[in-house]
Amino acid sequence: MPVVESKPMAKAPVIPAPWQDWRPPKYSIAELRGDLMGGLVAALIALPYGLAMATLMGIPPMMGLMTSILTAPITALLGRNPVLIGGTSTVTVPFVASAVAAYGLGGAAKITIVAAIFMMVFCVLRLGGFLASVPRPVVSGFSCGIGTMMIISQLKSLFGLKIAGGGTMLDQLLRAMAAMPGFNWQVTAIGAVTIIGAATVAKRWPSAPAPMVGIALAAFSGAVFGWHDKEVGALTLALPPLAGFTWSPADALSVLPAALGLAVVTSVNLLITSRVVEHFRGKRTDIKRSDADRELGAYGIANLFGGLFGAPFSVGIPARSLANVRCGGTTRMSNLYHAGFVLLFMTVLSGAVAHVPISALAGVTAWMGFCLLEWSTWSRLHKMRKSDAAGFLLTASSVLVVNAAIAVAIGWSVYAARWLVHRLMQAKLQLPSEPVEQRR
Question: How confident is the model at residue 139 (pLDDT cuts 50, 70, 90)?
Answer without folding.
Answer: confident
